[in-house]
Write a structure and sequence with these properties.
By secondary structure, the chain is an alpha/beta fold. Helices cover about 40% and strands about 10% of the residues. It has ten helices and seven strands. The chain has a seven-stranded mixed beta sheet. Helix 2 packs across helix 5, helix 4 packs across helix 5 and helix 5 runs parallel beside helix 7. The longest helix is centred in the middle third of the chain and has 21 residues. The chain starts with a helix and ends with a helix. The protein binds xylulose-1,5-bisphosphate (XBP) and magnesium ion (MG). The site of xylulose-1,5-bisphosphate has 18 residues, from helix 2 and helix 9. Xylulose-1,5-bisphosphate (XBP) binds next to helix 2 and helix 9.
Length: about 260
Amino acid sequence: MKKDEKSAVRAVLFDVDGTLADTERDGHRPAFNAAFRELGLDWEWGVELYGELLAITGGKERIRHFIDKHAPAELARSGLDDWIARLHKVKTRHYVEALERGGIPLRPGVARLIRQLREANIKIAIATTTTPENVTGLLKSTLGEDSPGWFDVIGAGDIVPGKKPEPDIYHWVLDRLGLPPEQCLAIEDSENGLRAALAAGLDTVVTVSDYTRFQDFTGARVVLSDLGEPAQPFTVLKGDQPNRGWADVELLMKLKT
Ligand code: XBP
Ligand code: MG
């Protein structure tokens, strides 16, 4: 393989929560709280507590961690795992309803970059910890009914045993893309996501979100405020200043060389 072929970006793998959209504080968090109320629990995850709970990826895993730390009396509940799964299903319903109301927009530059990648015949894929319905719900409510079909691979939720920071979901997606990591690029917003992508051998662009701004992004190719738009350029938080303020195909290609 020639060097150019080796370094060309043939696919971009997008994380979802925090990367495509700012979903956590005003999307997932209220959906968890609505599910707690619906099941008669007096739990309320505030903005700050939720920021701490985000260290645990996966909604079911996050609830389990909360019980361990803050509600240990629930550990005596029989069939605890099934009960958590039921509670989480209610949460997913509330979250998808919020998406259907159009409550969660894409972050700057995301729709533009996705369109440009498609025009350039670069594959696009999703590698996320979140539940599959949440991914299709977000894509449909923001990019249109047929947009899930734009993605060559959507890897989401419980299809792999280890959630991020384990690299399992990235391995799964790369395997289905049939591409080596050297020909792909990941876009992530969190330290857990970055660790997962790096462990799968992927060059990674980080676009920070409010919850992740101060995390450790050692190893990222570049850390940006967001993907930027010509009229609303990004800020470079770590890495070389590119010659423009928005991520496009040319800039992503440059990052690989
Ligand atoms: C996302 C997550 C998810 C969401 C909630 O992490 O950790 O758990 O917070 O989704 P990442 P579910 O962006 O690194 O993939 O409740 O559907 O799990
Ligand atoms: Mg994320």
